[in-house]
Amino acid sequence: MFGSVDDERFERGTARLDELAGAHGERAMDVVREVSPDLARYVVEFGYGDIYSRPTLDDRTRQLAAISALAAMGGAEPQLEYHIGIALNVGVNPGEIVESVVFLAPFVGFARTLNAIRSVRRVFAARGVELATE
Amino acid sequence: MFGSVDDERFERGTARLDELAGAHGERAMDVVREVSPDLARYVVEFGYGDIYSRPTLDDRTRQLAAISALAAMGGAEPQLEYHIGIALNVGVNPGEIVESVVFLAPFVGFARTLNAIRSVRRVFAARGVELATE
Amino acid sequence: MFGSVDDERFERGTARLDELAGAHGERAMDVVREVSPDLARYVVEFGYGDIYSRPTLDDRTRQLAAISALAAMGGAEPQLEYHIGIALNVGVNPGEIVESVVFLAPFVGFARTLNAIRSVRRVFAARGVELATE
Amino acid sequence: MFGSVDDERFERGTARLDELAGAHGERAMDVVREVSPDLARYVVEFGYGDIYSRPTLDDRTRQLAAISALAAMGGAEPQLEYHIGIALNVGVNPGEIVESVVFLAPFVGFARTLNAIRSVRRVFAARGVELATE
Amino acid sequence: MFGSVDDERFERGTARLDELAGAHGERAMDVVREVSPDLARYVVEFGYGDIYSRPTLDDRTRQLAAISALAAMGGAEPQLEYHIGIALNVGVNPGEIVESVVFLAPFVGFARTLNAIRSVRRVFAARGVELATE
Amino acid sequence: MFGSVDDERFERGTARLDELAGAHGERAMDVVREVSPDLARYVVEFGYGDIYSRPTLDDRTRQLAAISALAAMGGAEPQLEYHIGIALNVGVNPGEIVESVVFLAPFVGFARTLNAIRSVRRVFAARGVELATE
What we know:
homohexamer
């Protein structure tokens, strides 16, 4: 392994990961660690220790932005679903999650948007979230 | 729900959707409706009521264009397969569908093209379409 | 031209477009109209009359989501810059715009993120926005 | 250089390139040749000698498919504009070219569609094509 | 079928395919042949007979480049996994494969990188490759 | 600004950036710093201090991988050109750079490949690199 792990960024990142994604987040990192402990460490240090610890945006706004980016990319369904889960954890209400996906339709088209709605559906089903009628 | 549904575009769109995709199309919209009735309505109104009702291109040309765009995007296999199905419904013959995917190879490369051929294969198998030897 | 223009969605969309993007928005639509009046009309009706008129998300959140999606896509710099402009118009402060782009780095990588920062830089320069030191 | 050039595929490809893109096509290949004569040869042999010489699709359909794929990809404006030019050369009328781009809007979204319309506009201006009112 | 198959490029390509991917490669081509014998032939002729037979780069470098490109694209997991397999076949050691994916993180972001690591994990599991601790 | 700058990763990253990209690299970071000093810092710390300082791959291999990924993405021409420049700096010979782009053609198609060749051409012209005949 290259580089030290016992440092401020890793600890801060681990705390943030736990706060945002709980056991699900640790499991996701464990799966990555099986192949590359260093990659998992970079995700924790840079993703959570640096970026997710910045003060300006609140977690609700961050999650709506993450969902928008991942849905727009396409082909990132595992990450999109993980972040929809975090959105629920930080108190974004289901209607807002759905709304942020619907909002993308004119930007990225119905192909990406409908795939993102499939991801929302899968996460809501797994989490027992009642699909609110609009 | 925001906005009215009983309007000319929704009716025209529903008729077009039924004409192009039959029960399969309605089922696809029902799945979307479970999460967002409004998104399903936009697909029907804008996608089918506006765009698919325009006069200039015939449905065969439209489907070959849709297949090209969705194959080129990558990561839109559900929509690509849905539109390969519509292509068969509107009388595009299987050989033309295969040909339109092969045509993409120099443009988008073999990665996207081979994934699109996998989608063609899945739809043809599900529809009992005989794979014509070229 | 296909379809009617004097309708509720077009008027609502035009009003929203004017409110969000002012003269810049109308000019953008005029350029599109030169090639396809219908496409411009769909943008106004569906983009602004339907989607941007929905009640759940506020314009600040919508713009941060739009910026995230367009930056993640790559190759959509004209639209990204247009929406950074709208973000400034609706009162998103420059620091939040920069922050939403920095936030994307772990998701989409530095290539897309640095290109998005170039777009932010261009819009801020054109608008005389002072680049706040963090 | 690797491989032989005086062969049937190269000659057929050169003839097809000339037929479709005239001097513009040869100039495009000359620019590539400056950096990689082999890459130019592959484009001529595989792109034009193999793919564009296949019998099933007519050139009009091929160009509408090429335009759809390149517009959907985004970031391929040089190739999109080149192929819009070929579309005009093979007799696709300007209204059909515009229509094929408008058709993409629900699939790929307004960001990609509006960028494609910009490309249509640039080619039409360069070619002196009158922008038909719909 | 269009074009002749008994030619130098096809034979050279078939030999290269066999050398790089063995039975797995032939099976992959057989699946494509079921839908389009011509597309399979183009892959063998152009992909393996032309490109993979060029002298300048060694197979190890080629495979690291292929893995980088396919991981960066996203949505090309079948091809990425196939080429990770070829990388193992040509003697790229597992640690280098993992390293080439980790290297991409700052360029393409963690979404694409983590999906690529999932592909590495799947191939290593299928091939019984021990996940080396870094 | 959030987080400390006087640390080991930043110094290591700055040294690596200087070694790989010289004054061009510092200028690139200065442009980013004008908008976001933190983003520039993350690029230096994570991109160069972490990733580019890892021991397993040599810089030549890293640059060929970077070029492959950035060319495959499309729409990342500024970063592709910057990294082609670094490739020249670390001793990748021009023929290998061209070869790595030609190699991509069957994977990503001629659209992305030809755009990447345009980037190679621009960098070689700016650097006075003689275009070797193959």
